[in-house]
Amino acid sequence: MSKHGRVLVAMSGGIDSTVTAMMMHEQGYEVVGITMKTWDYASSGSSKKETGCCSLDSINDARQAAVEMGFHHFIVDIREEFGDYVIDNFVDEYIAGRTPNPCVLCNTHIKWSSLLKRADAMDCEFIATGHYAVVKEENQRYFVSKGKDDRKDQSYVLWGLDQECLKRSRFPLGPYDKTEVRKMALDFGYEALSKKAESYEICFVPDNDYRGFLKRRLPDLEQKVKGGVFIDPKGNKLGEHIGYPFYTIGQRKGLGMAFGKPMYVIEIRPETNTVVLGEVEDLLRNGMVVKGINSMKYDHIPDGMEAITQVRYNDPGTMSKLKNINDGVEVEFYANVRGVAPGQSAVFYEGDDVVGGGLIYSSL
Question: What's the pLDDT at 82?
């Protein structure tokens, strides 16, 4: 009989999830490992060698680690479920002129749902993942807080988890930094794993070329959207582009034209196939509207509260004031913020704690 209960550990074959399984085992949990097959490169039309969390090598690494630690391991194929939801949304968002964040969507609607479903089927009270974050409980509310390692903190991508998910989630790596995790892997006898490189790619965009992915996914897209125009903030035509879905807010490189000075994408207008370009100061915004809110630390976002708002994964965040509106939150930044992109996630922090988050609807 385990000391702390039975836990389902999501194992990708990488260092973080393997060390997570080791830690849960050492802490006295009865561990069951699970690896979810979300995607295969053959489906994307890419010729790149399959690597990362869904590759055969990674799945075998996860299984081997489970065997060596002496617990059961299962492989679950969720490619159809993943593709229908995450990938269709990814494509639809670019077609709508927005910039999606598929990792947030996957965590919220696919991975945790799949994990909890399997956890219930296997009588596991808890699930554990290798995310660098911490789950806290106050006033009968569960919420995510930042992990110790600022460079690896993943609280931003977890804003969408609901109370049931958080109540049953364990993130044992939260109190450690990456160097300490690598040392743990080495101490556990996994020298090769301790040196294993990390992947920062979107799993279904193997070469980090989202333009190529869109073209393969929608073969007639390039023909349909070609001949759009670049304009400046005053409406003056600057030239032609290859189609609005192939650009993102804040983009400077890959515009296909020389302007004599750095120019950035500051707005995308899909209805007219127009991309607005401006200088770096034209990217600055003093507010935005966020919709699809998930309130985490409190049962609702306190109206008028001050919070640090993060608008992308590597954003340090900006102090702001939050105002509740009918279908979301209006954010007033205390300092102008660069590159607010509709479709990306906005996450509100009180200190290190996630108050909640949502999807950026528009800038102000």
Answer: 83
CA distances from 153 to 81, 133, 313, 316 (A): 27, 6, 9, 11
CATH C-level class of 6-130+172-194 = alpha beta
Q: Which residues contact 112 (CB under 8 A, 6 or more apart)?
A: 127, 161, 165, 169
Give me the average pLDDT of each 10-residue run along the chain (364 residues). Answer: 83 91 94 87 50 65 87 89 86 95 86 92 96 96 96 95 96 96 89 70 80 94 95 97 96 92 96 97 97 97 97 94 96 96 97 97 94
Cα separation, 339 vs 344, whole angstroms: 10
HSE toward the beta carbon, residue 57, CA cutoff 13 A? 7
- Determine whether 53 is an active site residue: no
User: Candidates 3.90.870.10, 2.30.30.280, 3.40.50.1220, 3.40.50.2000; correct CATH number of 220-278?
Assistant: 2.30.30.280
What is the DSSP code string of 234-295? T--EEEEES-GGG--TT--TT-SS--SS--EEEEEEGGGTEEEEE-GGGGEEEEEEEEEEEE
For tokens 């998910």, name the residue. Answer: 165
- Structure confidence at residue 51 (pLDDT): 46
Catalytic residue among 54, 124, 165, 203: 203
3-state helix, strand, coil in the chain (%, to 5): 30, 30, 40
Q: How far is CA 205 from CA 11, 42, 158, 219, in A?
A: 21, 11, 21, 16
Query: Could you give the residue range(s) of every CATH 2.30.30.280 domain in the chain?
Result: 220-278
pLDDT at residue 318 in the model: 98
The active-site residue out of 53, 54, 106, 165 is 106
Instruction: Give yes or no: 203 in active site.
Output: yes
CATH 3.40.50.620 domain position(s) in the chain: 6-130+172-194
